[in-house]
Design brief:
Blueprint lengths: L3 E4 L12 H10 L1 E5 L6 E5 H9 L6 H7 L4 E6 L7 H10 L3 E6 L19 H15 L1
Helix pairs in contact: 3-4
């Protein structure tokens, strides 16, 4: 691997877990359902997901991985991402001296795409993400 590219990537797993009463309910029920903001689908998350993360938290630290990454790193993020705030892309960029942050103005989390995609052309923001990725890889 000579280069890394992330699109709309998170910078911290731990901050996404519930705390207090919500965490206790998850433990008690063994599963929690998270609503997908785009599809309204109820996504099941087993409590084992949380315990496995906690058991391996140091190993799964995105900050540590980003700091140690010694190859060129492109971070592509939309400034209107409703799922992963732009501040997370800024964190990734700040943690790595080999990184390059490409912000796509007006782009959401999926860069304007949806599933299923039935059109013959990519949406404008996704096309920009692809082009910036190809340019980065070609360098």
């Amino acid at each position: 691997i000579k280069k890394v590219v992330s699109w709309a990537g998170v910078s911290d797993f731990a901050s996404r877990f519930p705390e207090g009463e919500a965490l206790e309910m998850w433990r008690k029920n063994g599963v929690a359902y998270i609503t997908n903001a785009r599809t309204n689908q109820q996504m099941p998350h087993s409590f084992q997901f949380y315990t496995s993360f906690k058991e391996n938290e140091a190993f799964l630290s995105i900050k540590t991985a980003a700091e140690k990454l010694a190859i060129p790193y492109l971070i592509v993020h939309g400034n209107e991402d409703e799922t992963v705030p732009l501040k997370e892309a800024n964190s990734l960029n700040n943690w790595n001296s080999n990184s390059q942050l490409e912000i796509i103005n007006g782009a959401n989390h999926t860069f304007g795409s949806a599933q299923p995609w039935t059109k013959h052309e990519l949406p404008e923001h996704l096309s920009l993400a692809v082009q910036r990725t190809l340019d980065f890889i070609a360098l």
